[in-house]
Amino acid sequence: MPVAKQPVPELKAGALTILAIETSCDESAVAIIRQTGTTPAEILCSLVSSQIQLHRSYGGVVPEVASRNHSLILRSLVEQALDQADLQTCDIDAFVATKGPGLSSSLLVGHSMAKALAAASGRNFLSVNHMEGHLLSPFLSDQSTSWKSPGITVPPHLALIVSGGHTMLVHAKQAGNYHLIGRTVDDAAGEAFDKVARMLGLPYPGGPEIEKQAQTGNPEAFQFPRSMPGNLNFSFSGLKTAVRYALPKISNLTTRIPDICASFQKAVTDVLVSKSLRAAEEYGCNMITLSGGVSCNEALRSTLRDKCMSEGLRFLTCPPGLSTDNAAMIAFAALLKFRSGAAGSMSEDIDPNFSLCQQDSTL
């Protein structure tokens, strides 16, 4: 395979148009963004093809099904994105894709497609960490000058990333400089939502279903445990088990599902919010960001927003369309890397366990 031309210094200063592909799990996503100089990045197109219906009957993501569907739809999705943006491949300055973490079979499809496009068009290619895309997504949706200063694209902040596979607290000192200060030791928050939903006979994915049921429930009906109060790590396995043990003891279970969902949701929210606030205080952060698929949960958003306001902290998140897996966040992460002078390589390969940041030795 011919080696594509790598980023040159001129790429940092002029207009930059990036096409990104995201296939880390079961969503096929393609996006195109453009930025000129110091103006805000503009999302020219962002497409996501969901596989929820394909995996719903299995109660979770089946890797073989996910990768096969990526292969079937990705080419047409790229063509559709270029058409919507009124561009051709020769108008793209760089092609990027998710390197990891994620399902290896899914990652390989998107990574290979982006690399092939870069090679065929003689353009730049760069791999991006999926979790970095999530971490930076609030800054893509809010590129106001209120948090900017000369030479600073992303200010120091405390990032809470909550998804189906990850729950982490990250001290972000600047773009590309991340320090992991808290992580899940078992089930991630989104995973716990899915498992509890399955116990209750609710459809996959469980997060939106539990949130829907919780709207009419009493969050104080059941006193489920709040895990690991002494540090910044997360554990939701015990909470999930507590729900399991409670179910056989509940009479008229069907009528109590809203109360169970509301109480479970509040337990998860309490833990996420309290640890985020404590981490912000310990690390001297005056801004907290919220990202990842579970950040779509309005109870979590509103609770963390209100707590930040009461503590005098700035709160930043992004709309649901940029919270779940999408390629716009991958393109934005790549944009910041290119602007800082990063150079990609056609020799890069996927890494299903790709680490986002340095980890605290106490974790």
Short description:
With 363 residues, the chain is an alpha/beta fold. The chain contains eleven helices and eleven strands.
The appropriate CATH architecture of the largest domain is 2-Layer Sandwich
Q: Portion of residues in helices?
A: 40-55%
What would the CATH topology of the largest domain be? Nucleotidyltransferase, domain 5
Radius of gyration: 21 Å
Q: For the largest sheet, list the strands in their spatial order.
A: 10-9-6-7-8-11
Structure summary, number of beta strands: 11
- Tally of contiguous helical segments: 11
What's the SSE pattern? EEEHHEHEHEEEHHHHEHEHHE
- N/C terminus separation: 42 Å
Indicate the multimeric state: single chain
In round numbers, the mean pLDDT is 90
Tell me the overall shape: globular
**Beta strand %:** 15-25%
Number of domains: 2
Q: For the report, how would you describe the main beta sheet? A: 6 strands, mixed
Can you describe this structure?
With 363 residues, the chain is α/β, with parallel strands linked by helices. The chain folds into two domains: 9-142 and 323-354, ATPase, nucleotide binding domain (Nucleotidyltransferase, domain 5, 2-Layer Sandwich); 157-317, Nucleotidyltransferase, domain 5. Helices cover 40% and strands 18% of the residues. The protein has helices at residues 52-56, 63-84, 104-121, 130-141, 189-199, 206-214, 237-246, 253-282, 298-310, 320-323, 328-339; strands spanning 16-22, 28-35, 42-49, 94-100, 124-129, 157-162, 167-174, 177-183, 287-291, 314-316, 358-359. The strands form two sheets. A six-stranded mixed β-sheet has the order 10-9-6-7-8-11, sandwiched between helices. Strand 1 and strand 2 form a beta hairpin. Helix 2 (63-84) packs parallel to helix 3 (104-121). 49% of the residues are buried. Residues 1-10 have low confidence and may be disordered.
